[in-house]
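Researcher: Quick test of sequence recovery. Tokens follow.
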């Protein structure tokens, strides 16, 4: 069905991401690719100057290792990507760069603040240029 499926993984809700991978495995073409992406939040420059220089790089390295481990546990050979910035923006940019046919995003039950600010999943649904499957 789909050639390239993008699956964003948030480590604080890892179990939801693993379920999204299971869905992707059912929907991907035999020669398709599942791209796992995780976003490390960016640190404002004025704060970053006060932190150890390798903090962001170490965070990205740990995230890459964790994402690779998740792919292995899920039994998929996946392209693993770590991005830095605002999660919704970076996920949408990754979908554009990799020309994703589908984004499968896990969504937790929204709280009151999500109705006013909008959750990451809601922003992805509103702005994606490809179909989005939201797994709850």
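Model:
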């Amino acid at each position: 069905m789909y050639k390239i499926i993008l699956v964003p993984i948030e480590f604080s809700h890892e179990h939801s991401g693993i379920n999204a991978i299971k869905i992707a495995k059912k929907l991907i073409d035999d020669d398709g690719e599942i791209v796992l992406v995780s976003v490390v939040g960016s640190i404002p420059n004025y704060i970053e100057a006060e932190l150890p220089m390798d903090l962001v790089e170490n965070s990205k390295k740990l995230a890459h290792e964790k994402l690779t481990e998740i792919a292995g546990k899920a039994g998929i050979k996946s392209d693993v990507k770590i991005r830095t910035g605002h999660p919704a923006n970076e996920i949408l940019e990754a979908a554009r760069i990799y020309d994703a046919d589908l984004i499968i995003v896990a969504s937790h039950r929204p709280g009151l603040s999500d109705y006013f600010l909008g959750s990451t999943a809601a922003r992805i649904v509103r702005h994606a240029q490809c179909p989005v499957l939201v797994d709850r």
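The chain is about 45% helix and 25% strand.
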